[in-house]
Amino acid sequence: xxxxxxxxxxxxxxxxxxxxxxxxxxxxxxxxxxxxxxxxxxxxxxxxxxxxxxxxxxxxxxxxxxxxxxxxxxxxxxxxxxxxxxxxxxxxxxxxxxxxxxxxxxxxxxxxxxxxxxxxxxxxxxxxxxxxxxxxxxxxxxxxxxxxxxxxxxxxxxxxxxxxxxxxxxxxxxxxxxxxxxxxxxxxxxxxxxxxxxxxxxxxxxxxxxxxxxxxxxxxxxxxxxxxxxxxxxxxxxxxxxxxxxxxxxxxxxxxxxxxxxxxxxxxxxxxxxxxxxxxxxxxxxxxxxxxxxxxxxxxxxxxxxxxxxxxxxxxxxxxxxxxxxxxxxxxxxxxxxxxxxxxxxxxxxxxxxxxxxxxxxxxx
Length: 365
Fold this sequence. Notes:
The chain has 365 residues and is an alpha/beta fold.
């Protein structure tokens, strides 16, 4: 009888252990669905793009170049143990969670639309670093914010445009009406006004918005409309939508002599090559006047390197401007010496505080 009781006790104990193991395993799986529990490596970095991917010729592309630069500098390979990008296909929250689940230490995201998701992910995953570009998240020690004084470089582009226009009509095509895009318009318009005043010109400024960074067809339509209104220079700050601007201007210029062209001002990266075309008569030419560049690639590479060294700038808002070469305009054969000199003089005045360009206040950061 005693032997039978011991057998029953052993069986009950064994069953109890099985139940305990099952419960602990289930809890572990449930927890890992929203948190990363494995040890992360300081060297690993990831980029969460919007649905335009890294091939947008704009900010996603530039940020990815920064991660690649960081990877090459540290002899890392693309993949889960080095650097990688994740495209938003359904929701940004899902893309962020994928990067977390794969245990990337530092996760970059672009645009103010990701602010809520990044902030929550940072709260839920305190052992990961998060970076938001063109947005600000305050009072979270594992979040760094990167912002650019777009308006400063856009002002210089406005100066160049004022000195270049022949029709005295200049246009602007924006994507979403967020703070970064509105700052581009503000600086550009103020630069045009300053240039026009200096040259005693009366310049007409026109603007349109696609309300999206991925509506190429709409950007093309809006651009053709501006051209029909005699705009001969168009600054596009519309992400991947900007492809439509280049398409419309190329179509227009191909039907005209090479000395009668519409110019495009590029954004975020040097978009000079996007302006290559053949004018009427098959003469090779280019219609990118300049590009308003923000050194997102360098900013991303710098923060990734700091994270690797254990110096992640959590809780800080990193600002890039003319003074630290975080924003600038590119020179090109399409810019006259007079226009370039005027822009460079304005650049020094902005750096020295003699010209102050207000940042847009009526849009969420």
